[in-house]
Amino acid sequence: MDTQQIVLASRPTGTPTLDNFRLENKVLPGLQDGEVLLRGMYYSVDPYMRGRMNDAESYVPPFQINQSITGTVIGKVMMSKSTDFEAGDIVSGNLPWQVQTIVPAKGLSKIDESNAPISYHLDVLGMTGLTAYFGLMAIGKPKAGETLVVSGAAGAVGLVVGQIAKIYGCHVVGIAGSDEKVKLLKEKYGFDDAINYKTATDIKAAVAKACPKGVDIYFDNVGGEISDAAISNINFHARIPLCGQISLYNSTDAPVGPRLQPMLLTRSVLMQGFIVSNFKDQFPEGIKQLSKWLTEGKLKFEQTTVHGFDQLPTAFISLFKGANIGKMIVEAAVS
Ligand code: NAP
């Protein structure tokens, strides 16, 4: 049986381009015992994949040249030789960017289709929602009356961080890259204030104005100058969950910023990096809480959906231009 896959054609220098990817045909082998044939429905594109395009050791291994890109995919079981799944089941897993895939059933999870749209299991009820939940709850430790600043605020993680902080009674300020995003954060998602970092002439002053009592929690999704500005307003005993550094992922040199450690030291600030998988034993608890907030209407979410399997590289690259509101996903037509 023939299918299509997207492989890493070359490693990028700086920002990835379409030339770094290649769409090609692939012949699938026969289905063996314990395996299922899947057709991809929703594909997640995520900033961390940029790191996997480099030939560098990290917490996940690099993609290999001429091999399929992999990521979280939700798919429909078309044929099954496993007792765990039957045709028609909707499952998710870390899977290749292929239209159809044959994989062992044991790495797949069945999706509960009852509580939310299926694709929410790629984000608010999946990896990015859990990142927001555990990064904020375990490291940020929000308390009523405190001020939280989140960068990448209108993205998959940031939207959820800001809303959870509101549930906990915080004054919430988001930093994002367009006036449209700023408006949405304030009017739809209940943020107390939001800053467009692309038009602010002085981000540090803008954060100070939006946070008259200083910053108690800075949830860092982007790093760079935005984080320098937020941290320059940090309070005594503040917490900084270090979640992502997207502004640096395409850097070709080692950027040097202000040296903020003396301020962290003298103000007794906790800055802690984390990877969502640190909390994997607690994922069921996180999904239960996020589902409850969604059902109660305390948590809202949205996605930017790009249509067509062949659009995966374009959707991925556009993350670095801020093309998404909420989670960027790619939907493939499945009958
Ligand atoms: P996302 O925010 O949905 O999408 C990326 C957003 O980043 C873009 O929409 C863009 O929004 C912003 N951005 C792009 N380039 C930027 C730059 N140079 N400076 C500032 N902002 C820039 O992505 P996400 O999935 O929620 O991830 C957010 C961050 O968390 C990423 O750094 C990611 O690597 C990290 N993350 C970490 C974990 C973990 O386990 N630690 C898990 C998931 C994600 P604007 O329009 O606002 O620029």
Mind explaining what this structure looks like?
With 335 residues, the chain is α/β, with parallel strands linked by helices. It folds into 2 domains: 2-120 and 302-331, Medium-chain alcohol dehydrogenases, catalytic domain (Quinone Oxidoreductase, Chain A, domain 1, Alpha-Beta Complex); 127-278, NAD(P)-binding Rossmann-like Domain (Rossmann fold). Helices cover 24% and strands 27% of the residues. The chain is built from 9 helices and 15 strands. Strands 3, 4, 5, 6, 7, 14 and 15 form a 7-stranded mixed sheet that branches. Strand 9 (171-176), helix 4 and strand 10 form a beta-alpha-beta unit. Helix 2 (127-140) packs across helix 3 (156-167) and helix 2 packs across helix 8. The longest helix is centred in the middle third of the chain and has 14 residues, at 127-140. The radius of gyration is 20 Å and the shape is globular. Bound molecules: NADP nicotinamide-adenine-dinucleotide phosphate. NADP nicotinamide-adenine-dinucleotide phosphate is lined by residues 46-48, 128, 131, 152, 154-158, 176-178, 181, 221-222, 226, 243-247, 274-276, 319-320, 322, 324, 327.
